[in-house]
Structure formats: C-alpha cells, structure tokens
Amino acid sequence: MSILKLKSKDPVLTNGFSKKEIDHIINDDDDKNNVKITEFPSTLIIGSSANIKGNVKDDNEITIYGNVEGDIECKKLTVGKSGSAKGKIITENLVIEGNVDGDIKVKDHLTIYTTGRTSGKISYGSINIDDGGKIEGEINYKDKTIVQEDFDDWKPL
Q: Residue 18: in which H helix or E strand, if any?
C-alpha cells in the first residue's frame, strides 16, 4: 500500500516570478507589503504508460490517462479516454471518459462522457451522462443538504 502526495515546494507569484526571484526584488524596495504571494493547488497527472497499484490521495485534482488499481481520494478526479481506475473512489467531482469500476462516492457532480463507462456501487449528488456513456450497478442519489440518521439500535422483527 502506498500513498502518493505531490506538493509544490515554491509558491508562484501572481506576476509569474518565483519566491526566490521576488525576494531579490523586495530587498531593493522598501515597501514589502505590495507583493502578494499566491500558492496554486497541485495537480497530479498519471500518464498513459503508467500503471499504479496502490492508494492515491491528493487534496486537489487528479487526472488519470494510465491505469490505477487501488483507492483514490481527491477533490476532483478526471479519468481520460485511455485511463482506467479500479477501487474505492471518494471525490467531490468525477469526470469519466475512460473506465471506472468500484465503490464510487461523488459528493457533488458526476459526469460521464460518450466514451465513459462505470460500474459498481455509485453514489452522487448530481449527474450528467452523454449519449453513449454507460453506467451500471447500484446507483444512489445522495442529497448533500439532507443529513440521514443512522438507526443502529433498530433491529428487524
């Protein structure tokens, strides 16, 4: 089991300079408060020749063009035409152009394009399926505004 986590080392500035480059500029100026540093979220791209067996987790976006077999957790997941994912998936938004199989929990929006195919136990907040897109298995709509109660103390008669 492995967890792959990529994070940018140097923040990128709004004007395109790196922090090291701007430090040199700031040292020449007296007004350091005019510089605004913005960190951009990381994006993990798994190329078409990559085959990963293990868990993948990122706080932001993951795009898969290769093959991933294992659990995936991220904010947004895109599976390209040549991509496939198999395992437990937890994400806010999922875009499928390739193949996805497993226990899939999409908190917000699930999009399946014409070349996309998914199967397994699937829950979603909203869904869009293009003509030709395929979905099969146990499919459940989950309204994120309604909190469902667990009835652990209830027993069948």
A: none
